[in-house]
Amino acid sequence: MRNLLLLLILAGVCRLSAQSNQLAQQYFMDGEYEKSAELYLALAEENYNPFYFDRYVSSLMNLQRYDEAEDALKKQIKRMPDELALRVKYGQLLEQKFDAPAAEKQYREAIKSLKGDHIQITQLANAFIVLTKYEYAIETYERGDKLLKGNVSFAFNLGDLYRRKGDVEPMISNYLDALVEDPRRGRNVQTYFQRYLDSEGLEEAQKQLYARIQEDRKDNPVYPEMLGWILIQRKDYKGALRQARALDRKLSENGERVFDIGTLASNASDYETAIAAFDYIVENKAPASPYYLEAKREGLLTRRRAITNGYAYTEDDLRILETAYLEFLGQFGNNPASARIAIQLAELEALYLNDLPKATEILLRIVELNGVEENVRARAKIALADYYLMQGEVWESTLLYSQVDKQFKEDLLGHEARFRNARLSYFRGDFEWAQSQFDVLKASTSRLIANDALDLSVFIMDNLGLDTSAVALQTYADAELLTFQNRFDEAFATLDKLVDDFPGHDLEDDVVYLRGRLYHKLRKYDEAAGQYQKVIDNYPKSIRLDNALFALAGLYENQLDDKAKAQQLYETLFIDYSNSILAVEARKKYRELRGDPVQ
């Protein structure tokens, strides 16, 4: 009973103490310092706590009762000389009394009184940090390092303090020291570097890492790993690849980090570096290794993108790529696993080497091959239908489009096949049925399909109701089909005939825009730019205006090497034509060119 009574009394005291603490806290936050001082003093006398005493002194200082606060601090410092944060508080009091020299003396005395105690060092540094006295906190940690003789490191704390001060060089140096001491901090250091280092800061980090690598006799992999990451942030994929290959050899890895660099470089259109990365894996890893086959595939795909992405290429370049595809298929065979590669080869044959029969033959084998994934077979059918259409075999095309539409009715593959079938009807002059299909496809979950469907639907609606427009519209549709079939001379001639037969027709702006597309496909970029600019200058109300702006911006960005002009055009598009279906993409492109991180 006696023990139970004692427990009940203690519980009551604790409950009262907690209530007093909450009340004191509320008084302090409300600025009622007389009441908070009284309560915190009672709490500190009842059960000393550094927080209670600090709040008591702070309350007195807010009341400008400096003499009382000073007496209390002096007594407490004498009673607890090892609690060095008290000297920091005393220094703060002296500063408020405008006695800066005396305040500095207290700060120096606190640092001088440090012992080799990790907790004491941390508490003193934190006391300085609370007052944003980062220089004193830095001195505290540096003296702590000497007292502890390297048994405990404060490198990460020092990195944080230099970051708060904005001192980039020592910040980087200390974070790198912390990283070496504990490689698990790598993600934290990268986060800080990404958040707080600009291009000059990243360059400084790169310099420091190069110097450390040259001086490091232990060949610590932490340095080249961080250097590779820095180089990626600076978009120096070639330099990052050098580090990745060196680490792959040194650590006998499976090629994963090299593969990742290749993927990043490819996505950034640094095709030379990407190809070098994928080739390294193919040349240095066994065929059974986990990244060999994928590197082989990506190497082919990257070579194809390098050649066909609007950049300069020759017939020889295309033939070299064709040979690489054939070698791949010769090594791995024509089977379900290599079907996607075969589809890419067919595209190269059809669209770039103009060998439609060969492309058709390749795709027919995939369509008829047992074991092929159905979505891959459907991709092959859509491509095969395109190539049949390019050869004028309309019925074969519509049959294949319809098969995919039926099999993947609610899937994006089905939407794509339905769009192409509707476009085929548009080419053939069945405008009303085509428009009805485009209207349905405007709700597609694929933004690209929805945008294209909306574009064609509006185009047909604008031109179908005009007098004699069915003939003019059919002529224009014929020119678009000829463009699709790469019959460029005939397409130009058809457009000229349209202008001659229907002078002043509302399709004039569309004719100019389509001429731009034709020149674009022919890689006559200056002529293409001239046609797009003509739409912008001469047809301010044209429904092709946003398309022309976007296409012209793309030319300046990718082929005409004028990023500033491209940025200006993208900005015009998303500001002046914000209702355009291309406005969102234009804003994204604008931010990329400006260097903003894009989500």
From TrEMBL:
Keyword Repeat: yes
Keyword entries, A-Z: Repeat, Signal, TPR repeat
Signal peptide bounds: 1-18
Signal as UniProt keyword: yes
InterPro entries reported for this sequence: CellSynth/LPSAsmb/PSIAsmb, TPR-like_helical_dom_sf, TPR_rpt
Organism: Neolewinella aquimaris
Protein known as: Tetratricopeptide (TPR) repeat protein
Top-rank taxon: Bacteria
Ranges occupied by TPR repeats: 152-185, 509-542
